[in-house]
Amino acid sequence: MLIRLLLITTLLMTTNLLAGAEPHTFQIGPQSFLLDGNDFQIHCGEIHFARIPREYWRDRLRRCRAMGLNSVCAYLFWNFHESSPGHYDWSDQHDAAEFCRIAQEEGLWVVLRPGPYTCAEWEMGGLPWWLLKNPDIQLRSVDPRYMAAGQAWIKEVGRVLGPLQVTHGGPILMVQVENEYGSYGNDPQYMTAVRQSLKDAGFTVPLFCCNGPVQLRNGYVPDLFQVVNFGADPAGAFKALRDVQPTGPLMCGEFYPGWFDTWGSPHHRGNTPVYLNDLKYMLDHKASFSIYMAHGGTTFGLWAGADRPFKPDTSSYDYDAPISEAGWSSNEKFRLTRELFTKYLPAGQTLPDNPADNPTTTIAPFELTESAALFDNLPQPISDSSPRNLEAYNQGQGCILYRTTLPAAGATTLTLDAVHDFAWVFLDDQPIGVMDRRAHTFHVSLPAHKSEARLDILVETMGRVNFGHEVHDLKGIVGPVRIDQSPPTAVGGLPDPQPTTWQIYPLPLDASMLSALHFTAHAPPAKHPAFYRGSFTVARPADTFLDLSSWGKGVVWVNGHCLARFWNIGPTQTAYLPGPWLRAGENEILILDLLGPAKPIIAGLDKPILNRLRPDLDFSPTSPYGHLTLTSLQPITTGSFPPGDASQRVLFDHPITGKQFCLEARSSHDGQPFAAIAELDLLDPAGNPIPHTRWSIAFADSEEHAAEDGSASNAIDGQAASYWHTAWSASQPGYPHHMVIDLAHPTAIGGFQYTPRQGASKPGLIKDYAIYIGQSLVHPRDKK
After folding, report:
1. Could you tell me which residue, 460 or 708, shows the higher pLDDT?
2. In angstroms, rounded to a whole number, what is the distance separating the alpha carbons of residues 337 and 315?
């Protein structure tokens, strides 16, 4: 009887929740969307509740409405809600239903994007790490293990958010099936299965999928509504959409006003005039759209992902969106966007007032006087015969320490197959070297020692890659460990010391671990990882930006809230601290610094520092490039790309095996000295894309870094909206231009696919080219 009463009460609560909310119909018509039978143009903006303090959800949604939007897109990050199989969290910061209800109260419809895969520069693209406990699982496929987990997730989404569909009086107009699958695979059966799971979960509103212009046909399902994502050239993108879908409303699923940031690269700023012109084009042609991002916010905690092959994303997700990271809407981009929308309002309608920016406060510099050395605060270890990845120890994020004892030996070399992502090596507590996934430096020279020595390998994980096949991103030590002795030995004739007993210390950086730390007033040893603790007072809580520029690399918490990762190389030098997370009076701050600070001092600023690069502080610089040597080589093939921004696929007469691939650009279509590449994919002998897992850029003769991010690594990140661009602001070197990809090991290459910079009128469209493949086309700078 009690259970029956509880069920009735729950049903009444749901009914009362939606009481007074009138059910609507929403359909995809032959030329337009139809809301209650009337033409409806979706003016949408992306906004992620996980990246906004719950206390500010209404504030940010209110600004979206004031900008001129009538809808918001809302991602659900599967791993944010299901930390372990079957354990779901929809409370507090995770309360997606409450976010949707607030959106409705603020006059906004909702376009729901529940995954299972989402991307969004989020850890593993939203997929939960525990899927990788099955090492051979095929993600984003009909692999029964993946589908069972994904279908359970979608069923739970339907339980929580199904009642908020427009047909029940809620704000949810449409629901997305997966996300940009065409950039990953080409299996209609998989897309059909995900769509069916949404239907089985009770979603009756229209379902849709999105892809870039050149990926629309990959995994195409004829009766699934298609929308197209782009950051430029709406006319060209909509033409590509019409080629696939001749009827139905035109919609841009993601329209980019800016871009995200990665550590070590310049802060991205969008081209506001171009953005406004493209937005006007869509308004004039009655196309629907979603601005990605309308408000980016902050990737709090350890949830920031990594661009591929491996460029970790900053915690700041400002995105140069019209509404800034801290919710400011007094900027020019917001004002001009609002003015543009105002011109397209129906007669008699006006926009709500733009709210004033939230107040900020400063915090005078103060010192963190307590510390807890990491090696003095280790948990109980796990014994193992050899090191394994994090997932094998049931750990998803944070750090991990691998420890063993080496016998006496001469000088040796410690070599790992791979480490994900950074490793600091200590011998008898002395720092020896660093391993870095970005540079593929997976070996460290160990000095001779005449007695046993303790070897420590401290691994820091950053976000899992969130795009492409590289989302299958194991963390920690990946593959075998080898210690090779370099003859002659210092102690003579000893065998190579291959340890068979290891102690593994999981360091997840979670609340349980942090609460067990023991602090002292003694400073930790230099260049050793440690936690630092201090306190500060504020009279009246308000937003502030913690200045971390005197610190090294690590994570910062305030009052138990994990704010951000930090790294002194930039471009971000501050961490956004929301006012609601402060207390009037005393507040506690905790910082993990893996490198050690220049000074253990911190302050609160009234403005963020988002674009201060300091490459001189990088412990593993990946540039300058080495020497390109093509003099005695003949190209594998030569040719000419046609004009336009469509992808071009070139197949070789027979596969060529090599470790390095060079594209030599010999001329441009417009006669200018610039070259640009949005994406360069290599194909295996069967014509399938080769995963970028261990790729790196070995050489680029020219890159633009001052006026925009034209890094060559953009050409292998899987994102067509970013691109390699040769220098143009300070100098304009001419053709030929060269870019060399290092594949990490010899690979059979059957061809390549070149995607130009998007937008046919853009500079840098390559015309004539030559291709070289070899084992070592580029030699390190210290070798001739």
Report:
1. 460
2. 26
Mean pLDDT of the 733-750 span: 95
Q: Is the peptide bond before 497 cis (omega within 30 degrees of 0)?
A: no
- Per the DSSP assignment, residues forming a β-bridge with 627 are 779
How many CB atoms lie under 10 A from the CB of residue 354?
16
Instruction: Assess contact for 258 and 322: CB atoms under 8 A.
Output: no
Structure tokens, 761: 């009128």
Indicate if 55 belongs to the active site. no
Residue with the larger pLDDT of the pair 493 and 98 = 98
Cα distance between residue 37 and residue 203, in whole Å: 20
φ, ψ dihedrals at 58, nearest 5°: -65, -40
**495 — pLDDT class (breaks 50, 70, 90):** low
Residue 486, pLDDT above cutoff 70? no
End-to-end CA distance of the chain: 84
Separation in Å, CA 246 to CA 177, 210, 269, 391, 499: 20, 16, 35, 46, 64
pTM for the predicted model, two decimal places: 0.91
142 close to 326: Cβ distance less than 8 angstroms: no
Burial code of 311-346, b = ≥16 C-beta within 10 A, e = fewer?
A: bbbbbbbbbbbbbbbbbbbebebbebbbebbeeeee
Catalytic residue from among 106, 254, 679, 704: 254
Closest CA to 81 of 195, 15, 160, 167: 160
Q: Which of 373, 362, 316, 374 is nearest to 536 (CA)?
A: 362
Task: Kindly state the average pLDDT of the residues 742-756.
Answer: 94
533 within 8 A of 589, measured Cβ to Cβ: yes
The rounded distance, in Å, linking the Cα atoms of 4 and 7 is 5
Q: Which letter, b or e, does each residue of 450-483 get, where b requires 16 or more Cβ atoms within 10 Å of its Cβ?
A: eeebebbbbbbbbbbbbbbbbbbbbbbbbeebeb
Q: Break the chain down into helix, strand, coil percent, rounded to 5.
A: 20, 35, 45
- Measured between alpha carbons, how far is 223 from 217 in angstroms, rounded to an integer? 13
The average pLDDT across 623-632 equals 81
Q: What is the pLDDT of residue 12?
A: 35
The tally of CA atoms less than 13 A away on the side-chain side of residue 633 is 18
121, 123, 180, 703: which is the annotated catalytic residue?
A: 180
Which residue, among 50, 582, 708, has the nearest Cα to 315 in the 3D structure? Answer: 50
In one-letter notation, the amino acid at residue 6 is L
H/E element holding 60?
helix 57-67
Question: What is the torsion angle, in degrees rounded to the nearest 10, for the CA atoms of residue 482, residue 483, residue 485 and residue 490?
Answer: 180
Q: 731 has which bridge partners?
A: none
- Provide the residue count of the chain: 784
Torsion of CA 48, 52, 56, 57, to 10 degrees: 20
Give the CA distances from residue 101 to residues 21, 159, 171, 297, 300, in Å, rounded to whole numbers and listed in that order.
Answer: 11, 15, 7, 20, 23
Give the model's pLDDT for residue 7: 35
The pLDDT > 90 percentage for the chain reads: 87
Q: 95-116, pLDDT tens digit by residue?
A: 999 999 999 999 999 999 999 9
Tokens linked to 682: 């290599």
**Is 254 among the catalytic positions?**
yes
